[in-house]
Amino acid sequence: MMAPDLPVPRNLERFPELHPAFDSQGALAEANRCLFCFDAPCMGACPTHIDVARFIKKIASGNLRGSALTILDANILGLSCARVCPVDVLCEGACVMLKHDGKAIEIGRLQRFAMDSFYGSGAKLTSTRRQAEGPAPPVACVGGGPASLACAAELRRQGYGVTVFDNRPLPGGLNTYGVAEYKLRASDSLREVDLVRSLGVEFRRAEVGEAVTLDDLEKGFSLIFLGLGLGGMERLGIPGDRAVGVMDALQFIERYKTSDYVQVGKRVVVIGGGNTAIDAANAAKRLGAEKVHLFYRRSEKEMPAFPFEFDQSRVEGVRFHWLAQPVEIVEREGRAAAVRFVETRLGDPDASGRRKAEPLGGAGFEVACDMVIPALGQSGFMGLLHESRGIRLNGRSIAIERPTGRTSNPRYYAGGDCVNGGREVVDAVADGKRAALAMARRLAEAANARSHH
Amino acid sequence: MPDLTTNFAGIRCPNPFWLASGPPSNCGEQVMRAFDAGWGGAVWKTIGEPIVNVTSRYSSVDWNGQRMMGLNNIELITDRPIEVNLREIAEVKKRYPKHAVIASLMVESKREAWRDIVKRSEDAGADGLELNFGCPHGMSERGMGSAVGQVPEYTRMITEWVKEAARTPVLVKLTPNVTDIRVVARAARQGGADGLSAINTINSITGIDLDTFTPRPNVGGLSAHGGYCGPAVKPIALHLVQQIAADGEVGLPVSGIGGIGGWHEAAEFMLLGCGTVQVCTAAMHYGFRIVEDMTDGLSNWMDEKGFHTIEDFRGLSLAKMAEWKHLDLNYRIAARIDRDKCIGCELCYIACWDGAHQCIHLDGRADPASVEAASRARIAVTPNPKLDAGQAAGGGAAAVRVPRVDEEECVGCNLCWLVCPVENCITMAPVETGKARESWEMRTSRNS
User: Fold this and answer.
1) Dihedral, CA atoms, A319, A323, A325, A331, nearest 10 degrees?
2) ipTM for the assembly
3) Can you list the domains of chain B with their CATH numbers?
């Protein structure tokens, strides 16, 4: 697939950014509200530990370059995180001002202000702390998403060469292909990829496991970082789930973000209760669907989506329906024409601690539609690991030692969704950074050992 | 309702709030609008032989997003002819007979020049005269303004010349740009002054343009030092006013000037003995309308305290100032943190460690570096209801962020209380020492 010029012009109009940017007056006023806490809780709440108070005070002092570098030093994807982070449950949720006057400092928007100013000025990250050692890069990152980008950038900054292998036309992973366009434009994700590339990271498009095998990687690289993400979305597993007119949420989001051509039905049914379900439902609405109905088998209380996502979606005009589970996609004239649901009730808590949805009997009810978007979450993506390599799994995730990202095979490190089951971009960045620091220590120790012999 | 009418050194006015001599009192039209807004008096923009001004004239110091914490000017005295100013004074007095109009004067240091301007001002109807011996820029280079006020002999001499001719009260406006303001104040007294105005502006350079390297204000690529005023100078002005008011050899009514923008500051100057207060920067910043809350706020405060007139509280704080050697060495206070009010910013903690005496602690942490190291080492993840089965959500950290004061070690310096952003969260509580009052002077005189 050839990527068109991004952003897709239609998207600029249909997906204006959800949160308006600060102008410099607004940013200055907001920055001056910050108390400059010691050991600020916002920093502690950020998985990448951005020194929030410090970058905010640099905005206040007019040192915008220093502010941006403070952010990027901790989090190379500071631009996308400023846009997509659920700040209410992270930095802003920890802000002491909530206890002071009830209004947290708008950290996300301030970070975005600093990042926009950095990218807008054409500034570059020039220095690496040490020159790369040896002719061949010592580390391979598998997957081109946030975890690998953060890992690669940190390794370069520590002075080590890295090659990133990604199987898609464009790097960036879900940041490029999977985030709602009004939160993060694919073109902004690619600016971050360019920043990482500018540090000297090499990108290669290749499907690891096919065009390039793990054997190849083990021969060519000392250490390997797995930033595989998750696999495709789970199928509904009901009759008709492969009908024409059924497209899972990630495919749908990818298509509208990177392609001019996307056809949305008039009546769309979205199935699922997570943030991705909501992103897809909102997008369907903005792309012209007349009615968008979102069905979730449990109740509002159990819905995994963040409350602010739910609130936004209701503003967009998405209709929510609780306690209904699909049992069949009804096909007519060769395409999906309706979804048949049965009602459910909430039973005892399951392993996740949330009350289980139990289908009630009966024939159920049909909801007519011409497009069905299942958003049931992504399956664990372990295809590559069938080759095993002695990498232990924890359920459907790769088991790691948390502080270092090291797997049970000491040559392999891992981070991001393939480790945490699918959290936020900032969690993937933190995983990648931790792993990079641990790998850099390993490489330094190895170099020391060599020089002492 | 308290009575704010004032008789200051023989000058009567409906309230003690005067416009200070400066741009807001430049012409009759402004002064009349100020009186309509509620000002009790105005000291006219200094009258003398008209001067030529430059542009630009002002520069300021902004602080944490607030404009004009301090203002600096290099404007000179009036640029309008003497007769125009005097004609307008006459007009204002005709229309506002009960309001005070004080003519601020500055002429070359010749007896005849002073006698002439005094007579003409009084003929125009001025209720009093204020001798501008304080202006620190421009005029001082020509032997006027602070060039007079910095030399006690000149101050006394010119005050004497003026008093020979004057029929109305004569106020001498003092410059703060001296080593000991009391010496000049005494000279004014010896020259026969009826009252003092303090302070005039402070020599200043407010800042430098970091692109052009030209200090502000920029006049075609050059700057000159100016006079500093506004909220930033209040503490300096209060101190100098107290010095004058507490000096037994001065003994003159004082009109307080310097950073007064509201009733709070007005009350403070009055508690240190001022009979009236003068305002310029705040009126330049927000307009004449600010006087409404000055009178209203001061009246309400006086009501609350049971004061009926300004004389009821004027000077009350003078007895509460002493030399350091008289302070009680055995008086002790210690900081206390209200755990329920604390928001966990830890500003008191780092202030005590880096700026004071290392007696505020975070339990379980040896020092600031170990606090920060522990935070960096902590692995934080975004909460996710689907993945965090049964786990307690984050939060809960607030309790461990409340610092603890070691009251034994606390020296009672106030710093933590000053930096705490929460009202009444840190209090400085008296600690019973069981010791009798003892000052440094008492201790050393006993030992000798």
Assistant:
1) -40
2) 0.90
3) 6-320 (3.20.20.70), 324-365+400-447 (3.30.70.20)
